[in-house]
Amino acid sequence: MAYYGYFNGSILPVEQIAFGITDLGLLRGFGLFDYFRTYNGRPFQWDWYWERFANSAAKMHLPLPIQKEEAYGVVMELIGKSSLPDVAIRFVMTGGYSPDSISVVNPNLVMITEEIHPTPHTQFEEGIKVILDDYVREMAEVKSTDYKRVILLAQAIRSARASDVLYQKNGEISELSRSNFFIFKGDRLITPNRHILHGITRRTVMHLAQNDFQVEERPVLLSELYDADEAFTTSSTKKVLPIVQIGELTIGDGKPGKRTLFLLEEFNELVGNW
Amino acid sequence: MAYYGYFNGSILPVEQIAFGITDLGLLRGFGLFDYFRTYNGRPFQWDWYWERFANSAAKMHLPLPIQKEEAYGVVMELIGKSSLPDVAIRFVMTGGYSPDSISVVNPNLVMITEEIHPTPHTQFEEGIKVILDDYVREMAEVKSTDYKRVILLAQAIRSARASDVLYQKNGEISELSRSNFFIFKGDRLITPNRHILHGITRRTVMHLAQNDFQVEERPVLLSELYDADEAFTTSSTKKVLPIVQIGELTIGDGKPGKRTLFLLEEFNELVGNW
Predict the structure, then answer these.
(1) How many angstroms separate the Cα of B63 from the Cα of each of A156, A180, B54, B58?
(2) In angstroms, what CA-CA distances link A36 with A51, A55, A118, B97, B234?
């Protein structure tokens, strides 16, 4: 297996990509990224991912050093150089090397291919547990590199035998640490509309769902969990992953919900034919 | 001029120090640092800086890969290898290389020497202007690498012909972007006690001030700026730097205050004899 990456214009083996110590991503946490995968060797929802990446960069005042068409060419070259049928692709852009450890001069941009870490089958079959945390991400709509919170919570998540954390602040739910959140109340599919990163899988699932369900994108209160029939989370690796327990609260009958599994099936069908 | 650094046990020229792409500081903003300087070739307040660094590491659940005495030996070796009478020393510790881009295995630790960027003389003579921002740092007491906010404000600071930003949230003042904040009301010296990084220069100045002033360490309200006679900020490079304008508000008569200049003199005397 060979993974290659693009670093500021050059293509080289991933192991050879390295950032010098004056990089503002390292020194000042000033970085953003994106992450997507291929299905059948083709990047999934490329247009939407690129749009989001460009949007994150703009909100961090970083000029894109590469345009969309050229980036697509690089991504396809990197995919071709890997010997796997499907790979993940990660973009990382930082404030670049700084002469005074604070001023931005030119961003550093890396694009690499990676092994996909698939979500274990048992999680789809049994659903996952999440714990609650009183938190909301700063600049949640930007896919910045700021993930201190969930790394600090790793021990608490393990102790609770949970898989992840669901953030809420002042009684309003936003998102999981790296994925979006949905509930079903009957045939109403409800998902938070603010203080979130607008996930591409979230967007895909909302499109898929609108034929069969009433989709509501709006603020979601913590108190609404008590009469939710089903819950799930979405991300590029989690797809449509059932949530059966939130803190001490069991959702529905503690098993993956039928509407959730229907959406997972629809999603799998979509990506199978991608 | 030669700057050397320590990276996970090896000493090498700073230009040769580089972080691979799976580092959690880069990918997830999971890093902390510290920064201090020498006077007369000796690290200033080494004991206090080490204590703070160790404390930041503990709060980020990262085990220190080196103990204090060994670290001191490395710092002295790095200082010796530079050809300058005085240098800055920067520690950077991240969550290290991660197999899945989220789990911590072993931290990466770098210690390097750098050129000191001294604060311009005119700023001490004329004082500086700062703008206000409605913000408080997450985990302010930890010297994490999270400095997105001030980098995003760079243009606003320049446009206002200011030098820095003073954070306040809900009417309570915390700190400047990378330095602490003090006001004088008569002979009372007042500084925020919470939502701040506890600066080593701040601590030094509070010690120096207690002979001549009544020092109050407590929450400081934005409204208190209106009857402040003097204001200043402290950091390892700013020492005791007068602030003469905060947003549209002129402090005192718009010139550096006499008590502030007295403390600057005391500080310069202390470091001159270090």
Answers:
(1) 18, 32, 9, 7
(2) 13, 16, 12, 21, 44
A78 with A156, same domain: the answer is no
- Please tell me whether residues B50 and B163 are part of one structural domain: no
- Residue that the structure tokens 């669901």 belong to: A166
How far is it, in rounded angstroms, from Cα B241 to Cα B258?
A: 12
Q: Which residues of B220-236 are buried (b: 16+ CB within 10 A; e: fewer)?
A: bebeebeebbbbbbbbb
- On whether both A59 and A95 belong to a single domain, the answer is yes
Of A45, A231, A36, the residue nearest A127 (C-alpha) = A231
Residue B135 region, left (φ>0) first, then alpha (ψ -120 to 50), else beta? beta
> Do residues B44 and B236 touch, judged by C-beta distance below 8 A?
yes
Are B109 and B179 within one domain?
A: no
Q: Are residues B182 and B241 in the same domain?
A: yes
Question: Residues B146, B228: one domain?
Answer: yes
pLDDT tens, per residue, chain B with 274 residues: 689 999 999 999 999 999 999 999 999 999 999 999 999 999 999 999 999 999 999 999 999 999 999 999 999 999 999 989 999 999 999 999 999 999 999 999 999 999 999 999 999 999 999 999 999 999 999 999 999 999 999 999 999 999 999 999 999 999 999 999 999 999 999 999 999 999 999 999 999 999 999 999 999 999 999 999 999 999 999 999 999 999 999 999 999 999 999 999 999 999 999 9
- The answer to whether residues A185 and A133 belong to one domain is yes
Q: Are A36 and A44 a contacting pair, CB within 8 Å? A: yes
Disruptive mutation site among B11, B28, B92 for chain A (greatest number of A CBs within 10 Å): B28
* Contact at CB, A26 and B26, closer than 8 angstroms: yes
Q: Check CB contact under 8 Å for A5 and B21.
A: yes
Contacts A104 to B, Cβ<8 Å = 151, 154
Domain of residue B181, CATH code: 3.20.10.10
Compute the distance between CA of residue A24 and CA of residue B94 in angstroms, rounded to an integer.
13
Domain C-terminal end among B98, B114, B130? B114
Is B31 in contact with A26 (Cβ distance < 8 A)? yes
Domain end, chosen from B81, B114, B147, is at B114
For residue A100, the domain's CATH number is: 3.30.470.10
Q: With contacts defined as CB-CB under 8 Å, which chain A residues touch B25?
A: 25-26, 29
How does pLDDT run across A108-161, given as a tens digit for each residue? 999 999 999 999 999 999 999 999 999 999 999 999 999 999 999 999 999 999
**Parent domain of A244:** 121-272
Provide the 3-class DSSP secondary structure of residue A124. helix
Structure tokens at A6: 């693009």
Counting the structural domains of chain B, the total is 2
Give yes or no: residues B233 and B261 share one domain. Answer: yes
Contact A29 B29 (CB under 8 A): yes
Give the pair of three-digit tokens for residue A183: 């509930």
